[in-house]
């Protein structure tokens, strides 16, 4: 519409008159620089350098005037365009007036035609408004009816105690009707009552939950006691089954197969009873409804948790539940200082066991009410506290039986809670840690009991009138000499000390095994065996040694103690077998680990005491050796007086001792006594009281030795064949001396071969002393007269040679 005017580029004009003048040339350069937008600094410096700034100002003014004229031309061109536009607008004014009149006519026609229609439209709009208002009123009435129904239902649920259903009704009211309430009054009422109702429901379930917290503590104690009782019953059934199995093993060795089959049938019944009983108890004990036996009801807890979930307070209730249960557990840890722990330990551990049985149930069925990590944290706290309590209480206890009772209950607690997945290794470690203290206390108790049993011993053979006494005192410890039951009344070869000590040791074994059992260690026979060795070798052996050294004063007492030691040796074999059976290891393994008889010291001391007392008795008879006629001209035919007295005593001794002493012990004792008699005979010949003796006196001594040897041979019926010959060897020194003195060639004693074979028991110093006493003949008083002109005696010459050579050696 408008023509676009392009700006012309103005080129500097060239002077026409003074083209060669310097000023004109500078003006042209300045104009070109300004036109092209170049820097004017060089022109300014040059003007001031030449001292002609006026020229520069003149040139600038000239440039400005040239630009002003150009601007004026441009403005004139644009004003002309504006005038042309105004003229165009004036030409359009008439067209606008005609259009306006046309529009006015059209409007008049439209008003006349649309008037009735507008009337009808207003009537329609009014009717539509009334219809909408009626529909809205009906809708609000229906809404109010539904609201009233929900409110009435909520009230009914509240009255019936159905808090969750009442809360669902309140949630429905709040969701559907609060924002759409037809009345502001009704809305305000709902906004006020709904929070109050929710608060009331929360208080109600919180109260029920609080009551449940109080009740569950009593329930937990009963639940823990019942669960531990079931574990104890199951353990007892296992023990009974093991006893029957051991009996079956013993009977099977006797080929009593019928009993074995009957045992297998009972074993199956027992197994069924155990599994069935535990399953039924588990099912009934974990019912969410009330259990008639335990009252183990989690319904209040789950109702409270569900309602708090509905109220949007799930996390707060979880925290509240955990904190309250943690406080309850902490209060359960309190151990009363007024009540001995031995009396309160079952309640203490049963409370904790019931607590975690309940928590295990809540964990598995509570829908996330408590997490596994929280239960584990509570359990770690409980284990730490129980370990601390056990450490403290065990350190104070000085009675083994008390430790055993608490240990058994703690092990039952471990068995019970292990079934629910709890780790009880720390508790078992505490029990194992106090194993040594328990056994030390047990050894101390056994030491007192053994001392009392030994102090009460009368050193008399035990009389049993009934078979049950025999079974209780003999068969129960397997110390019988034969499998044949004797006739009653039965006089045992041992005194009452033996079964009393056996009962003490057996009780020690059973208590030791009881402590070691169910403690987390499967193979504990070596531990039991170690303490059994200490009981036998230190306690019992020491007590017997003390008894022997302080209370045994007669031969009959010493003989009874020696007989007791023999029976105790058989009993020790039973002790180790019994320990192996109770520990659950095969007997062949126990046989391989057997050590020597642990009562060796007491046995040796008893035999030495018996031998010593017998030697004292024999010494009393051997004093009669002083009555022997050493200068006799004829040998004694029936033995000297002393040997006859000794023989009467020995025969009486053997007839009595063989009733209670076994052959090997009697053999050792008789050997010591005969050896002592032999020494006494030799000692009598060596003694200064015998100045000299004749060959006939030596022959009488030989008769004495033969009588003693005949006594040894007569004992062959009591001992095995080789043992009877050992009794004769006990008289070897006296026999070899008599043989030497009666030998026709005594100098053979100097022959090493002959001496080793026939005189190995003789001391050459004694031989010298005794031979010197025999070197003079019996009639020495008249020897100088009767020996003149007679041939020298070769035996006397040999004896003199022997004496001389032996003196040279010495």
From TrEMBL:
Domain Exocyst complex component EXOC6/Sec15 N-terminal, residue spans: 59-228
Signal peptide range in chain numbering: none
Recorded superkingdom: Eukaryota
Main location per the UniProt record: cytoplasm
Key words, A-Z: Cytoplasm, Exocytosis, Transport
Gene3D superfamilies assigned to the protein according to its UniProt record, in alphabetical order: Dsl1p vesicle tethering complex, Tip20p subunit, domain D, Exocyst complex subunit Sec15 C-terminal domain, N-terminal subdomain
Keyword hit for Cytoplasm: yes
Keyword Transport among UniProt keywords: yes
Annotated region (Disordered), positions in chain: 1-23
GO annotations of cellular component type: cytosol; exocyst; membrane
Every Exocyst complex subunit EXOC6/Sec15 C-terminal domain range: 427-773
Subcellular location: Cytoplasm, Cytosol
Pfam families linked: EXOC6_Sec15_N, Sec15_C
Residue ranges with Basic residues bias: 1-10
UniProt GO BP: acceptance of pollen; Golgi to plasma membrane transport; intracellular protein transport; pollen germination; pollen tube growth; vesicle tethering involved in exocytosis
Family statement drawn from the similarity comment of this UniProt entry: Belongs to the SEC15 family.
Function: Component of the exocyst complex involved in the docking of exocytic vesicles with fusion sites on the plasma membrane during regulated or polarized secretion. Involved in polarized cell growth and organ morphogenesis. During cytokinesis, involved in cell plate initiation, cell plate maturation and formation of new primary cell wall.
UniProt protein name: Exocyst complex component
Species per Swiss-Prot/TrEMBL record: Linum trigynum
